[in-house]
Write a structure and sequence with these properties.
The protein has 15 helices and ten strands. It is an alpha/beta fold.
Length: 331
């Protein structure tokens, strides 16, 4: 019979398949890509004796870079899943899960560094926010700025060239950096938009990369390739109303929903105030689907983060709202 340590690979495969079946796609990805090892770390001779193990998971660098900020939540979720699978083995238990990146060799590091240049995020993007590029002609720059400020309430960082490019930086390079690292693009369509070479190129770049593009229209209609996309009418609307419509579109669109959802979850998990918790919870209630791992992180925040735990929303509380969301996810 195989020892507990020798079962590491089969335990990992079982846990990965179970995570897939339960909709925990991020957790499943970690489990499927990881190199695993069980390390004996303790022994308790009470009640027949129990040996404790640490499960070490080494994941590819690209996966680790995406989960690093949520690493502890994934470690707890995987530990609970493993102990659920092995609960009939009274003599052995996993007391800790540690996720680390696979270390690169010198040769691999050189190639990886070159590849990663395309994934470096410029400092003008707010960390853990959805990244939205606003393409506009100079005549509506004040309106673009107002929309940018309103979008911040939805955890959306908007790039507006006249706001975000430092005078000491070469402006064209910064625009290219913003386009390279954006999650989606909004185009404010005005009569002047079509006469701007830069606006056309920005939209073309986004469409060429398959990014979600939202045309905002007043008296002008989308043209060219944009003509195939349903424009969002904003004539007469305040910036706050436009921002609300944009955030709802980002949540509903299949291409941007995962990134937008993860941004909202991460923001609530790390909320630093009751007001932030209330605002983010209001947005999360509009998300059509959440993964099991995201629900688990929200439930943990409801227990451990006082700014979430003690936040009220009318006659209800944020933790009650989170538990209501959890009921949507099948066990």
């Amino acid at each position: 019979m195989a020892s507990f340590i020798e079962k590491a690979e089969s335990l990992l495969k079982t846990a990965a398949e179970l995570a897939v079946l339960q909709g925990s796609t991020d957790e499943a990805k970690i489990l499927k890509e990881a190199k695993s090892s069980l390390i004996e770390t303790g022994y308790d001779n009470w009640n027949g004796g129990i040996t404790y193990f640490t499960l070490a998971l080494e994941v590819p660098l690209k996966i680790f870079s995406k989960i690093e900020k949520s690493r502890e939540g994934f470690e707890r979720a995987i530990k609970d899943r493993m102990n659920s699978i092995t609960r009939t083995d009274a003599a052995n238990a996993i007391s800790e899960v540690i996720i680390t990146p696979v270390l690169l060799s010198d040769d691999e590091n050189e190639g990886e560094t070159e590849k990663s240049l395309d994934t470096i995020v410029p400092s003008f993007w707010e960390p853990n926010y959805f990244r939205l590029f606003i393409s506009h002609s100079s005549i509506v720059k004040e309106g673009a700025h107002a929309i940018k400020e309103a979008l911040a309430h939805y955890q959306v960082a908007a790039f507006v060239a006249h706001d975000d490019i430092e005078p000491s930086f070469e402006w064209q390079n910064e625009i290219e950096n913003a386009l390279r690292t954006m999650d989606a693009l909004v185009a404010i369509i005005t009569p002047e938009f079509s006469t701007s070479k830069w606006c056309d190129q920005e939209v073309g770049y986004a469409l060429g990369r398959g990014k979600f593009v939202i045309p905002l229209t007043t008296d002008s209609s989308p043209y060219g390739f944009l003509a195939k996309i349903q424009g969002m009418k904003i004539k007469g609307l305040k910036a706050t109303e436009v921002a609300k419509k944009i955030s709802e579109a980002l949540i509903q669109n299949p291409a941007t929903r995962p990134r937008m959802t993860e941004t909202l979850v991460e923001s609530l998990v790390n909320s630093g105030s009751w007001e932030t918790s209330r605002i983010i919870m209001g947005h999360l209630e509009k998300v059509p689907d959440l993964s099991s791992s995201q629900i688990a992180r929200l439930l943990t925040a409801a227990d451990e983060n006082s700014q979430v735990k003690n936040a009220f929303m009318g006659s209800s509380t944020v933790p009650e709202k989170i538990r209501a969301l959890a009921k949507r996810v099948s066990p």
